[in-house]
Each structure stands twice: as C-alpha cells, then as structure tokens.
User: Fold Guanylate kinase from Helicobacter gastrofelis.
Amino acid sequence: MSNHAYRMLVLAGPSGSGKSTLISYLLQHCPNIYFSISTTTRPKRAGEVEGQHYYFVSQEAFIKSIENKQFLEWAKVHGHYYGTSLEPINKALKAGKLVLFDIDVQGHRSVKEVYKKATSIFITTKNIHTLKERLEQRHTDSHEMIERRLQTALQEIQEIELFDYVLINEDLELSKRMVLEVAHTLGYKQQMFPKETFCEAWGASHK
Ligand code: ADP
Ligand code: 5GP
Assistant:
C-alpha cells in the first residue's frame, strides 16, 4: 500500500450534485494534481472525450480487466460498470501528485478500506428537488435515467456519515472555494512530516 495515500481526495455523492464541475475547477486551480480517469461501460455523453472523462469500453473488455485485477475498485452503478485502475494512481502518488477521484459511494467505501488516510467529500444538493432540476437542466439523461439517478441518490445519502466533509453545493463560487481549501489542507497532513525524519532533526529517539 502506498504511504502517499494521504494525497488522495475522493469526491462522491449523487449524480448531478456537481462533482464534475468541481473537479474541472480543481484541475485548473490546483498544481500537481492528477484526476483518476475511470473505465466505464456506459455510453459516451455528448461532449465527453475518451481518455479525458472516461475510458469507454465494452462489457467484455471490462470483465477482462476485472479478471486481470486491473482495478483498485469497481462497481455497477445505474446498470453500468465503472472501475478505477490501480496502476496510474500508484504512479501519480509516487510522483507526489494529489490524486482526485469522482466515484460513487461503493467506490468510496472500497478506497477507504484500502487507503485509510484518503480524504473524502460528500457533494450534494440541498434536497432531491434541486437535484432533479440540475439533472434536467444538464440535458444528458432520459426521463427514465433521471428517475433512476434520483432513486440511487436516496440510498447514497445514507452513507453521508462515512465522509470526512460534506458540501451542500448551492452557491457554486463558495463550493469551489471549499474544495480548493480542502485540497490545500492535504499538504498539511501529519503524514507530510515523517516521524523518523522529524525525530532525527530534534535529536529525539523514535519508536
Ligand atoms: P455530477 O458530476 O455530480 O454528476 P455535474 O458537475 O455534471 O454533476 O453537475 C450537474 C449539473 O448541475 C450541470 O449542468 C452543472 O453545470 C450544474 N451545477 C453544478 N453546480 C451547480 C450549482 N452550484 N448551482 C447550479 N448548477 C450547478
Ligand atoms: P456518471 O454516469 O454520471 O458519469 O457517473 C455515475 C456514477 O458513477 C457517479 O456517482 C460517479 O461518481 C460514479 N463513478 C464514476 N467512475 C467510477 C468508478 O471508477 N468507480 C465507482 N465505484 N464509481 C464511479
């Protein structure tokens, strides 16, 4: 397991709550940051770019990747497979980058199991009506798919207490500031100051 895991920031929460919007902002405003590009079997939406938003693959290819143990975690969300590849994350962590994840609550649980020091933010709207409006205004999902996402959202909020931070994404400018502040605090985590080196500098013994 990587000892750089404190440099992991997970954004999860209902689809339509604003995770992609906030991630785009972080990618533009945070230096030395890497976005974990997931692999999915979901069809590409208008405006999405292969290798930027996702790697879009067939179900057969996805299952092969599961068998090859390529994923740190994977889950079925709204009837499609989504997975996080392990190798690029390890590479980015070793290079001292902050690794950002946009994953669902199942993925969040898996990441926290493996990387206990990872930090997480639950992104949500203030209620389900606002979420529905946002999904409708995004114009990327059918009526049926929106209903499905709303049903999933009702289950997702049950996991809120497992997160380090909760962000009710109302005022977008405030939300951007909040995620940037959290990202900056990762540089002050206790693990940034390895005890061994610190004790040596102090001339103190260390256990
Ligand atoms: P997610 O990645 O969580 O599915 P998106 O980032 O795609 O969500 O946001 C869903 C929609 O809501 C998009 O059309 C986005 O522009 C809009 N949106 C995001 N944050 C806000 C906000 N604070 N106020 C109003 N609309 C927002
Ligand atoms: P969307 O289809 O809206 O892009 O994503 C649907 C849901 O799948 C979102 O909650 C998103 O965070 C989640 N998701 C995206 N990639 C992954 C992944 O690699 N693993 C898991 N567990 N969830 C993911």
